[in-house]
Amino acid sequence: MTVLAPDHREEPYWWMAAPPMPEAEAAPVPPVATADVAIIGGGITGMVAAIHLARGGADVIVADAGLIGGGAARMNAGFLGRTLKRSVAWLEKNVGADQAIGVYRELDEALQGVATFVEAEGIACHRQTCGRLISANSLPHLRYLLKDLEHMKRRLGLDYEVVSKADMSSELASDRYVGGAVIPDLGSIHPGLYHAGLVARAKAAGVRLFPMTAVTGIEPDIRGKILHSARGRISARQVIVATNGYTPRGLKWFARRLVPFHGYVMATEILPSALIDKVLPKRRTYLDTKMSIDFIRPAPDSERILFGGMTGRLNGTCAEIAPALHRRMVEIMPDLAGVRISRTWTGYCAGTFDFMPHIGAHDGVHYALGYNFAGVPIGTLFGRKLAARILGSGDGNSAFDVENFPTLPFFNGTGLVAPLAMKYFDLQDRRMARGK
Ligand SMILES: Cc1cc2nc3c(=O)[nH]c(=O)nc-3n(C[C@H](O)[C@H](O)[C@H](O)COP(=O)(O)OP(=O)(O)OC[C@H]3O[C@@H](n4cnc5c(N)ncnc54)[C@H](O)[C@@H]3O)c2cc1C
Hints:
Number of helices: 10
Strand content: 15-25%
Helix content: 25-40%
Bound molecules: flavin-adenine dinucleotide
Largest sheet: 9 strands, mixed
């Protein structure tokens, strides 16, 4: 059986409801443009910053290398969480209790902030508090998960519910897991509609959007900075770099600190509701305890299941990748064996060498980067914080603004680091499964 449905396309499922903005709808790009603030990258961070800046009185240009809405902002899985690869306990031990609590409080602020922002702006994007099931791949994984969640509960008051192996079938039709936990206040969103809502509000606030304008370099200038692109120059008093996993090598200092990872997601054909109810009875978001996660969710606007995983390991076109993802999906949820795939897509996210997101300024250029797969809430928060820093009003402070944004000698943003990191994650997963 081919796993591809007759309507299969190599593009994000989210584009069915929210395709990227056609270039013709954008402002014409002049050979020389001036603005108070130029933002490089029109994803979530860039667009949220633009909205707040323009409403605060700034003249703003957002330049994007592709179409507005063509990047990870409308390709991600739409999980809303407050998860980092570093636990509270790890941070307490390595960077101190105050910083650990500050980081996790800010992650919670980011999660709550999406809900507040979406509601205040009236963006119709299926944001919901559906809860998240984290399924444990082994008993040592389960012990670590529960210890971590209990620690978070004691330190931060964040709640969770244990799911025993016997109760797992009431959450997920899979026999691969030994138990898990539900975090009830985590949520989901339709990332395409969310980003489309941001773009509409940015345009209404007077932001000029320059699609297909890849910035190749930033230089000092009498007014502040000059941005160079093949389409012309932009002169601005302030600049924001918001390019996350797409940061080009030309933006050298930034690219040297970010490891781009390919993430893969697919959406099934339309399924009978009863099948989804059997496989995902509570229609939450789902992931596992491995460093290299598999993730599952129902679509919020049609009867489909979205599945992602195998980050950074596949090669080829999406049509070639789909069978590997499909096999993995069926290994986890055998009830989906005969189900075909309507959409497969891939986008870039950015890892960092300390596994932490970063916000700050380098050589007078503001940045918010390195979201390690959790950029929908953090990008929304950091976009607001960047605007507050530039406008000099509101709360621009962040626990993620730390002096050291690490890199490695000779690392230039490409090469073998991503595959090596995935091998390291596998090793860690196997070690933990053995209880080490
Ligand atoms: C497959 C996948 C699944 C994910 N799932 C989730 C999830 O469930 N939940 C979650 O919170 N996060 C998830 N993420 C991560 C999330 O999508 C990102 O962290 C988030 O989009 C980051 O937002 P951003 O605005 O900073 O950057 P992006 O949305 O990546 O936007 C960066 C933009 O910069 C532009 N750009 C790059 N270079 C230049 C240049 N030189 N000049 C001009 N523009 C440039 C790009 O074209 C792009 O549009 C996922 C990511 C992927 C790839």
